[in-house]
Specification:
The chain is mostly helical. It has helices at residues 4-14, 19-26, 30-37, 45-55, 59-63, 82-93, 96-112.
Length: 122
């Protein structure tokens, strides 16, 4: 179960924003955002509403302490470029073995370019 600060950080990282840019979008200082993400304080209503508007996140998921649903669909909005959409569509059309091969290639490329890649559940 994720705490509010962890959920805020998850939204920020998923949208590939640094703390400064994300804080600006929700109307708090970078220091306040850092405190929120670490669980040292809770945001007021205004940043919560800004999160809902800017990232289309589900307020029930964001503020509820209950375990999350099994699906992340509908929790918040992430914008994709047309190139990313094409890659996702192509990836979804491939057999599982080829998806695994591509994942290995992406991991090699990430290491080569010193990029952290996210862990995923199989």
């Amino acid at each position: 179960m994720l705490q509010l600060g962890e959920k805020v950080k998850y939204i920020r990282k998923t949208n590939q924003l640094n703390q400064k840019d994300f804080a600006d979008r929700i109307g708090v200082s970078q220091g306040t955002l850092s405190d929120i993400e670490r669980g040292n304080c809770y945001p007021s209503c205004e940043p919560i509403i800004a999160l809902k508007k800017a990232f289309k996140c589900d307020l029930n998921w964001l503020i509820d302490d209950e375990p999350e649903s099994s699906s992340d669909q509908g929790l918040f909005h992430v914008s994709f470029s047309q190139e990313e959409i094409s890659l996702i569509e192509l990836l979804r059309s491939l057999p599982a073995i080829e998806k695994d091969e591509l994942l290995q290639i992406f991991k090699i490329k990430a290491v080569k370019n010193n990029i952290r890649y996210p862990k995923y559940k199989q």
